[in-house]
């Protein structure tokens, strides 16, 4: 899973030579052999490395603040989203929905690595949502739909249908 | 910029250390653990940094990184890698280790849990050969890891076994700043400084459960990716299959009174006692009695020795109130509602061994005995309480019996406990111009002596017992968490007496006019109800070594069962059986709102049967949405969907097909079966689901276990679909034999399903076995050990008459029900449905006044259905548009008339209470 995600990211970044990855332990942590030093371990670490390789540093944020925000969401993805239990899902979606209320992208008004990274991580949750729930988490689904249609992002994942008209009007107060 | 931290939170150590190392200027504010600083997060998250832009950072590592960056040190790739490792690998292990050490006092487990991460750190440090993690100088990675590990490394010898880690850690210790940060957070108390923080963290899951249960798998929706089945599994499944039924049938007839038996698992199951003064709603039913019923039925199938008791809780102010409202005596109220409760549970097929009540002789006897014992052992304290007394009525007034002017906002109709206008909590004696609600006289303030149970004195005993019970028993997560939070807030003495009449009298001569407070009295009801069932009740209740006690309830009842009642029993020191497994559900909502008796929203126990939907289907759906682990909602549309998709199309369809094939193709006799690889594979798959079911049910995961039943019938449907016995039966000998095997295996799976369904849908379960003429011994066989799926209908067995098990729920029908229970019931209907038992004549009167005509409504319903079908038929035939329009107009007119006859407004909108 993580490896497909990294190769999607490579394609988006326009990296010519696909890297070779291996995985470590039963948790399947990705590993990238690095010519200039010890191997890189971990999804976040490798993704940041790819961004640097592609010379697109702005994808990690263009100020100290936004870099901190981007890193926070990268960490959120691997600690909170991955391996979340059924009980956590509602809380996660509710929180993100509130967070995204006044934002276009995860880090505000600018597309960053946090967007595809969170998109890949949240995809399995969104796929399972009933239409009614999608409407309940309207800001999350709006953002999600935006990112899945962002050029060059979706790749290995199936598209999720997000209806634009409300079916369950009585759901909202 | 502002940094929010809390004491005792190990994550705050990191950011405070980073702040000192980098020298960045920033306000630091200490807040409570529970403070929600980050506006968009529903759980409190500390530390948090408010950035100049107004955004919040809530991850301690991101905050540290940021502090270093504005301090002039960008983090390198290596640094980031350490931070990621810290967050994904080290933290989960640390959390588990701290949980063990701080909350369970198992410091010895720490080294085991942390072995992996610490060894990795040791290797990296020794290989890197640099003083710090990323080189010659301190980086953010060192600060974060050092601070993360400080609580465990400073407190134990873990570091000394690892030379490089020790050298690195002591070098870190040189960083003065880190130690001063540690002092601030832990206050020099070491691990114990984190106790109150750890208590409010969710218990860490071990990594295995995480791997086996990824969040995104939803077994309800289609069988997931085919599970790989090994050869061994298939052979084992085939072997089990051939074993046949248990020869010695277990005693399925219960011999009352049931008493504990040496050498057996003796389970005493209780369901929270429903309050007598109201009709229970669906949420009450699923929360206690239904869940407990499913588990007891299941336990009997497992061959455990079960006793399931419950009863109505009848004493207290609320009953007195209700009695006054209805103009009856409290006893009459209790008699009336006890009967209502009994009949509702009977309809829901709740199979109590005994359903009693708390207003009995035994209750007085046992409650007073416990009282005297607690008294004797010095766990009671006397204190005076100021209360309002109405001289006219000659009694002290409970808070709800007083009204007056709010001392805060001068609202004239404030109640004795709270003001409805400003919402402030009020102490009844503070009300201005208080009035007795009954006689409107002015009450006077009197002080009254009361007895208090000394919970603080019992706390050490309680904690000791809780540690043991929660670690060895199955307590739901919410039960543990609520209990922890009570203990954390500190226990206070609790008043056990009240100035009321309707209650168990306090036997102490100094407190003659008083009764026991219901919270003290009611749980004793479990004992007295058992005592009314059998004289040998003490064999259950004073026998903690032989008996395991299961308490079922909704989460609001947890503290009384986990803290208060155990304290009463511990204080009595009479070797009482205390709860071993506390099973608490979350709340069930109605559609997207709450059940409300006063607004008429929701389905109440007595109305369920009026819907025409069978009791088994109600049970199935309530259990399917059982609020297990999180709140859930009852929804009509969803109920129809689950009935139609799961019961009708999946489960019912499979069982019916299997039976019909036997009837149609093999003259009603189970054909001979020659198992091939494919069949064995199916047996293995089914066996696996059965095993999961048993594992979950043993842990009282009732909702999750139900999914595995439905998975089996899904496997079965797929198997029939692939093998097409209806085609093969027309082929040559080999093909005919194949059709026979497939049919035989399928009908045996149907038999297994009937057993697994028994706890959930007892009637349907029995119907299936009747239709298959299945031997009763199959019920005792299948759920033994880890599950034994045997061939219980062997070749030649003659089955009975097969007929469909479930009916479709139509959209119209569901819409009508949704409307009826959606909170817009007219007063006439309300009166009709809730007070029928008491005042049928009055209800009928109101009904005619409003022009409601039930007889006419019935005819019209029929007419609407017929007309609806006509329209559908026309549409299906693609008839002329004009013709369809005319028929639709007729239909609409009929619906309008029906609405009138039912006493509803004929206009569909507006829906009160649903939309705003």
Automatic annotation (TrEMBL), chain A:
Q: Which GO terms describe its biological process?
A: positive regulation of DNA damage response, signal transduction by p53 class mediator
Query: Which top-level group of life is the source organism from?
Result: Eukaryota
**What are the residue boundaries of the GST C-terminal domain, all occurrences included?**
49-169
- Coiled-coil intervals, chain numbering: none
Name one matching Pfam family: Arc1p_N_like
Name the InterPro entries on file.
AIMP3/p18_C, Arc1-like_N, EEF1E1, Glutathione-S-Trfase_C-like, Glutathione-S-Trfase_C_sf
**Which Gene Ontology cellular component terms are annotated?**
aminoacyl-tRNA synthetase multienzyme complex; cytoplasm; nucleus
SUPFAM superfamilies this protein is in?
GST C-terminal domain-like (SSF47616)
Protein name stated in the entry:
GST C-terminal domain-containing protein
What's the source species for this entry? Perca flavescens (American yellow perch)
From TrEMBL, chain B:
Where does it live in the cell?
A: Cytoplasm
| E.C. no | 6.1.1.10
Q: Which reaction does it catalyse?
A: tRNA(Met) + L-methionine + ATP = L-methionyl-tRNA(Met) + AMP + diphosphate
Q: Which InterPro entries match?
A: aa-tRNA-synth_I_CS (IPR001412), Anticodon_Met (IPR041872), Glutathione-S-Trfase_C-like (IPR010987), Glutathione-S-Trfase_C_sf (IPR036282), Glutathione_S-Trfase_N (IPR004045), GST_C (IPR004046), MARS_N (IPR041598), Met-tRNA_ligase_1 (IPR023458)
Q: Which residues form the WHEP-TRS domain?
A: 856-912
Alphabetically, the GO molecular function entries are:
ATP binding; methionine-tRNA ligase activity; RNA binding
Name this protein carries in UniProt: Methionine--tRNA ligase, cytoplasmic
Q: Which organism is it from?
A: Perca flavescens
């Amino acid at each position: 899973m993580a490896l497909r995600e990294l190769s999607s990211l490579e394609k988006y970044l326009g990296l010519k030579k696909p890297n070779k990855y291996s995985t470590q332990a039963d948790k399947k942590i990705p590993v990238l052999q690095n010519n200039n030093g010890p191997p890189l371990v971990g999804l976040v670490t490798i993704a940041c490395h790819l961004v640097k390789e592609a010379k697109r540093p702005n994808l990690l944020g263009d100020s100290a603040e936004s870099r901190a925000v981007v890193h926070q969401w990268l960490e959120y993805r691997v600690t909170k989203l991955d391996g979340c239990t059924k009980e956590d899902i509602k809380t996660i979606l509710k929180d993100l929905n509130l967070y995204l209320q006044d934002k276009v992208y995860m880090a505000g008004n600018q597309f960053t690595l946090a967007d595809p990274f969170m998109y890949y991580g949240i995809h399995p949750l969104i796929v399972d949502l009933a239409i009614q729930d999608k409407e309940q988490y309207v800001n999350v689904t709006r953002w999600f739909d935006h990112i899945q249609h962002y050029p060059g992002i979706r790749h290995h994942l199936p598209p999720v249908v997000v209806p634009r008209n409300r079916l369950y009007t009585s759901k909202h107060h | 910029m502002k940094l929010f931290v809390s004491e005792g939170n190990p994550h705050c150590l990191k950011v405070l250390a980073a702040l000192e190392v980098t020298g960045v200027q920033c306000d630091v504010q200490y807040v409570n653990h529970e403070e929600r600083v980050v506006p968009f997060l529903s759980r409190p998250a500390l530390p948090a940094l408010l950035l100049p832009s107004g955004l919040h950072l809530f991850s301690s590592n991101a905050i540290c990184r940021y502090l270093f960056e504005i301090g002039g040190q960008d983090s390198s790739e290596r640094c980031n890698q350490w931070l990621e490792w810290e967050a994904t690998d080290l933290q989960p292990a640390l959390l588990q280790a701290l949980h063990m050490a701080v909350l369970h006092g198992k410091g010895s487990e720490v080294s085991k849990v942390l072995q992996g991460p610490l060894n990795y750190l040791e290797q990296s440090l020794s290989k890197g050969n640099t003083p710090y993690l990323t080189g010659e100088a301190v980086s953010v990675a060192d600060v974060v890891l050092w601070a993360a590990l400080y609580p465990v490394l400073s407190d134990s010898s873990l570091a000394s076994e690892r030379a490089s880690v020790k050298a690195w850690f002591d070098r870190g210790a040189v960083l003065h700043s880190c130690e001063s940060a540690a002092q601030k957070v832990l206050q020099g108390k070491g691990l114990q400084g984190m106790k109150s923080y750890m208590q409010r963290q969710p218990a860490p899951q071990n990594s295995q459960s995480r791997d086996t249960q990824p969040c995104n798998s939803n077994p309800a929706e289609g069988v997931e990716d085919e599970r790989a089945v090994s050869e061994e599994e298939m052979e084992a499944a085939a072997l089990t299959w051939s074993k046949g039924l248990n020869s010695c049938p277990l005693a399925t007839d219960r011999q009352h009174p049931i008493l504990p038996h040496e050498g057996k698992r003796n389970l005493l199951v209780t369901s929270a006692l429903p309050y007598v003064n109201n009709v229970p709603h669906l949420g009450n039913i699923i929360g206690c009695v239904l869940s407990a019923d499913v588990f007891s039925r299941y336990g009997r199938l497992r061959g455990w020795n079960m006793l399931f008791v419950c009863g109505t809780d009848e004493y207290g102010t609320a009953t007195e109130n209700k009695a006054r409202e209805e103009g009856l005596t409290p006893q009459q109220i209790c008699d009336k509602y006890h009967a209502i409760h009994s009949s509702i549970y009977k309809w829901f097929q709740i199979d109590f061994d005994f359903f009693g009540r708390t207003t009995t002789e035994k209750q007085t006897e046992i409650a007073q005995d416990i009282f005297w014992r607690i008294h004797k052992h010095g766990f009671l304290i006397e204190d005076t309480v100021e209360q309002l007394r109405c001289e006219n009525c000659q009694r002290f007034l409970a808070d709800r019996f007083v009204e007056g002017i709010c001392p805060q906002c001068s609202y004239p109709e404030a109640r004795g406990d709270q003001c409805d206008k400003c919402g402030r909590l009020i102490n009844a004696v503070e009300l201005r111009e208080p009035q007795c609600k009954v006689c409107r006289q002015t009450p006077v303030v009197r002080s009254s002596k009361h007895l208090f149970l000394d919970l603080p004195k019992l706390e050490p005993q309680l904690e000791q017992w809780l540690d043991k019970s929660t670690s060895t028993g199955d307590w739901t997560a919410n039960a543990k968490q609520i209990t922890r939070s009570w203990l954390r807030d500190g226990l206070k003495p609790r008043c056990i007496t009240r100035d009321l009449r309707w209650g168990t009298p306090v036997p102490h001569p100094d407190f003659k006019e008083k009764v026991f407070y219901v919270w003290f009295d009611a749980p004793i009801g479990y004992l007295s109800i058992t005592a009314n069932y059998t004289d040998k009740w003490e064999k259950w209740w004073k026998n903690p070594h032989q008996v395991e006690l299961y308490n079922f309830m909704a989460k609001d009842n947890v503290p009384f069962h986990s803290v208060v009642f155990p304290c009463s029993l511990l204080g009595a020191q009479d070797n009482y059986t205390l709860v071993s497994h506390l099973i608490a559900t979350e709340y069930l909502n109605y559609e997207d709102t709450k059940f409300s008796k006063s607004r008429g929203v929701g389905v109440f126990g007595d109305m369920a049967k009026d819907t025409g939907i069978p009791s088994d289907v109600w049970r199935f759906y309530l259990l399917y949405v059982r609020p297990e682990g999180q709140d859930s909602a009852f929804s009509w549309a969803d109920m129809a969907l689950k009935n139609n998709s799961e019961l009708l199309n999946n489960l019912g369809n499979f069982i019916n097909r299997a039976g019909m094939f036997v009837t149609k193709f093999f003259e009603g006799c189970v054909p001979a079966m020659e198992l091939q690889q494919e069949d064995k594979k199916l047996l293995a798959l089914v066996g696996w689901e059965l095993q999961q079911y048993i594992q979950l049910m043993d842990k009282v995961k009732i909702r999750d276990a139900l999914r595995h039943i439905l998975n089996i019938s899904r496997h079965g449907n797929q198997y029939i679909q692939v093998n097409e016995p209806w085609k093969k039966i027309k082929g040559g000998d080999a093909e005919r034999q194949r059709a026979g095997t497939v049919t035989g295996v399928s009908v045996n799976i149907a038999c297994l399903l009937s057993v697994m369904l028994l706890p959930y849908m007892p009637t349907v379960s029995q119907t299936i076995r009747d239709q298959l003429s299945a031997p009763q011994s199959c019920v005792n066989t299948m759920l033994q050990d880890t599950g034994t799926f045997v061939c219980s209908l062997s070749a030649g067995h003659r089955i009975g008459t097969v007929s469909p098990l479930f009916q479709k729920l139509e959209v119209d029908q569901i819409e009508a029900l949704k409307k009826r229970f959606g909170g817009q019931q007219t007063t006439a209907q309300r009166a009709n449905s809730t007070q029928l038992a008491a005042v049928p004549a009055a209800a009928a009167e109101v009904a005619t006044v409003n022009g409601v005509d039930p007889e006419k409504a019935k005819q019209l319903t029929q007419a609407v259905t017929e007309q609806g079908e006509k329209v559908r038929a026309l549409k299906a035939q693609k008839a002329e548009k004009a013709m369809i329009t005319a028929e639709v107009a007729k239909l609409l007119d009929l619906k309008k008339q029906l609405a009138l006859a039912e006493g509803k407004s004929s206009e569909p909108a507006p829906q009160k209470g649903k939309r705003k």
